[in-house]
Every structure is written in structure tokens, then in C-alpha cells.
Amino acid sequence: NKTYTFTVEATFVTQVPMPVVTITPLLVNLDNLELEVSTFGSASYTYTVTNHGLIRADSFQLQLPTSHPTLDFTYNRVVGDINANTTVLVPVSVSPKSSDAGARRRRSSNSCYTGLASYSVECGGTRYSGIGLSFSGGPPCGSGSSSGTSLVVTPGGPITGSGGGGLATYTRRPSAYKTIDFCDPCTKAKV
Known about the structure:
- With 191 residues, the chain is mainly beta.
- The chain is extended, with a radius of gyration of 21 Å.
- The longest helix is centred in the N-terminal third of the chain and has 11 residues, at 30-40.
- Strand 10 (151-153) and strand 11 form a beta hairpin.
- The protein has a five-stranded mixed β-sheet.
- The protein contains two helices and eleven strands, in the order ββαβββββββββα.
């Protein structure tokens, strides 16, 4: 009598009928950037932005920190729309602020600066989404604080909020979840 053993593995993959945008890195290490800029005069890194959803993410843009005392962050590429199941690379250049060229001044070691990756989707009106970006020499901005902070995104306008140095403080825990409702006219139209 021969004995056979079968192993069955199942992988479940679902397709979401909305944009599902991820970006890496979420945390940029300022210690490394400051050292590279002071040593070589400039630095760069690349964001990898992926839309895992079935719907295009419209008007993707980055808002990078402007309040860092010695570094300027720039990206010279208009990203715009990100099609479904597409990955886009966004290079970012880091240079010394013109007033600090040649200076070896550093920010406070516990400083934290934030940015935002934002996009919209047209679905029964325009809906906006944002992903918080942290710039620090340690943990992500807001991760060690339980104080109440807020983040306000105005389409086409500035990011405002409360928290430490930078644009706003962001924690990755959402304050509310919305389940996909297949009776929702927007979702129904996309499926």
C-alpha cells in the first residue's frame, strides 16, 4: 500500500474597485541626508508610488517640508494621474538652503518634519486622500506622542495642522474606517 500526502495552498487575491495608493519610504532619515549634503553638497532619494487599485488615482502630488533649517527638498517631475496597477518612481533632490551653503549647522536631534502625498478620485464628486510622510532622525513623526494633533488638507491649498516643526504631525492610525459598500452609487458605477 502506497501513501500519498497532498498539500494544498490557496492564495486569495482581491481587486479593490478604488485607488489603493502606497508610497515608500514613509520615513526619510534626516541624519543620513544631512551628513550626505554636508559632505557632498547634495543628496537624493526616490519615492516608489504604487496604485494597487482598479481605478486611476488622479492629480498625485507631493508636499515636502519647507521648514527644515538647512535642507531644501525638491522634485522636478509632475506626477499627475497614476493608472490602476501602476508603479511610478519620483526622484527627490536635497540641497543646502541657499542661506546655509557651506554651513555645517544641524537641526535639533529630536526635530520632526512632515510632508504629504495626496491624490483624488472622481466618484460622485471629487474625493481626496493623503498619505503622511515623516522626516526625522528617529521614529516617524507623531509615533511617540499621544497628544491630540490634527491635519487639514485643502484641495489645491496648503497643509495646516498642529504639532511639531514642519507642516503637521501625522500618525498612521486612521480616525475612521469606511467599508466598501457595493450599494454605494460610486462603488457600483466602478464595478
